[in-house]
């Protein structure tokens, strides 16, 4: 019983849940980006609706709730620790939080439209008019999450094995600004689908660029890791 009544024991159980949720979430993130998306590019037309109607909803359930479990246990761990951690953990938490928000506010809402469109077509109806735009919006956010996951996992590990010391405001602000530029690109296609957002006349963004390919998104992830690592090395 001691393990669940001491601060260290509670943190250990939270970390266990954090690992389980994270493995589920990131594993499915890689499945969607490296396996399912590439399969859908080559699949026969008759196979695609079956994937969208039967496979994707099941995978997306575990995907989004794995993200939820990871986020909540991560917040709880930071609450139990109460501060005093290296800046690396805050960088990892920043990336993880943006990824979590992308799942629940961009990827899942847009995937629901895509799935509903596939269900309608299977029932003899027409595709939903905004299904293609929804798929594109979900795709950019998902590719961006795959890119973010590489430095996120690096800095989570670095916090315990190669820490850069305490929280540095200048270093974190520099990283925050760099990451938010990429996050803007990740969510832009979702923003412009909202009529209320169009009035702001946002500039063109929401591009996949090299992230359109599996090697490209992996390379972007490692490149972002190097950039953020150099920022910490220089500013801490």
Describe the structure.
- The protein is mainly alpha-helical.
- It is 80% helix and 0% strand.
- The protein has seven helices and no strands.
- Helix 1 packs antiparallel against helix 2, helix 1 packs antiparallel against helix 4 and helix 3 runs antiparallel to helix 4.
- The protein is globular.
- The mean pLDDT is 90.
Question: Which features characterize this protein?
Answer:
7 helices; mainly alpha; globular; 236 residues
The largest sheet, given as strand count, sense and whether it forms a barrel, is: none
Measured as a percent range, the helix fraction is over 70%
Tell me the structural class. mainly alpha
Overall pLDDT = 90
Low-confidence stretches: none
Shape: globular
Q: What is the terminal-to-terminal distance?
A: 41 Å
Counting H and I runs of at least 4 residues, what is the number of helices?
Answer: 7
Number of strands: 0
In N-to-C order, the SSE pattern is HHHHHHH
Rg calc: 19 Å
Tell me what portion of residues adopts beta-strand conformation.
Answer: under 5%
Topology:
Layout: H1 7-42, H2 47-81, H3 87-122, H4 131-161, H5 169-192, H6 195-198, H7 214-235
Question: Summary?
Answer:
The protein has 7 helices and no strands.
């Amino acid at each position: 019983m001691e393990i669940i009544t001491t601060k260290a024991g509670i943190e250990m159980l939270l970390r266990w849940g954090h690992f389980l949720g994270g493995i589920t979430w990131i594993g499915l993130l890689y499945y969607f980006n490296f396996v399912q998306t590439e399969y859908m590019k080559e699949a026969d037309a008759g196979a695609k609706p079956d994937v969208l109607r039967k496979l994707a909803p099941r995978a997306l359930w575990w995907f989004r709730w794995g993200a939820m479990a990871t986020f909540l246990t991560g917040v709880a761990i930071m609450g139990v620790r109460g501060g005093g951690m290296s800046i690396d953990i805050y960088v990892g938490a920043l990336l993880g939080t943006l990824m979590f928000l992308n799942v629940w506010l961009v990827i899942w809402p847009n995937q629901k439209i895509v799935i509903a469109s596939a269900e309608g077509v299977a029932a003899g109806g027409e595709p939903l008019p905004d299904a293609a735009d929804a798929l594109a919006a979900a795709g950019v956010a998902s590719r961006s999450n795959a890119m973010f996951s590489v430095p996120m996992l690096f800095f989570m590990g670095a916090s315990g094995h190669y820490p850069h010391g305490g929280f540095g405001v200048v270093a974190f602000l520099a990283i925050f600004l760099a990451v938010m530029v990429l996050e803007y690109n990740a969510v832009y296609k979702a923003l412009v689908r909202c009529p209320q957002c169009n009035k702001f006349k946002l500039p063109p963004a929401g591009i996949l660029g090299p992230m359109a390919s599996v090697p490209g998104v992996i390379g972007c992830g490692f490149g972002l890791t190097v950039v953020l690592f150099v920022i910490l090395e220089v500013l801490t």
